[in-house]
Amino acid sequence: MELGFKPDSAGLHMNAQTHTPEALDLRFVAKAIGDLDALVRAVLTSLPTSKPWQRQLRAQLSEADRLIEVLRLVVAMDRGEQEVAQAGRELLTAMRAAYSYVNAGRADVSTRAALLLGFNLAEKIAASLGE
Q1: Which segments of the chain does DSSP mark as H helices, in order?
Q2: What is the pTM of this model?
Q3: N or C, where is the chain less crowded by C-beta within 10 Å?
């Protein structure tokens, strides 16, 4: 019997309609990516650029925003597991760099808290995609 599609990609789409653990995991990843995107954009919008550390943080968060879009595209294009996991790891690396930079610098408490949340979301995304 010829299926006409790859079983792996079909399973990904079929599970999104059911309540299996894999489908719940996919929903979590999609929600976490959306939440991280909203958080990064909110920090970018509210961050002034008057000080050098703010400009550096803005550059790091712009890179993270770009990597969020790359991750979304890789998932939407139904690329291989390795490519999806790599995109998740790259996003985690960018968020780790931004959080480390803010944590060691002069950022206010709310910016640090936002980036800690973003880093934790990126960790969960990368862990879910890397399994």
Answers
A1: 7-15, 21-46, 52-76, 81-104, 109-130
A2: 0.79
A3: N
Q: Is 131 exposed, middle or buried (0-12, 13-18, 19+ CB in 10 A)?
A: exposed
Pick the CATH number of 20-130 from 1.20.120, 3.40.50, 2.60.120, 1.10.3470: 1.20.120
Closest CA to 60 of 107, 121, 101, 109: 101
Please, which pLDDT band fits residue 50 given cuts at 50, 70 and 90? very high
- Per-residue pLDDT for 12 more than 60? no
Q: Which pLDDT score, from 0 to 100, does residue 21 have?
A: 56
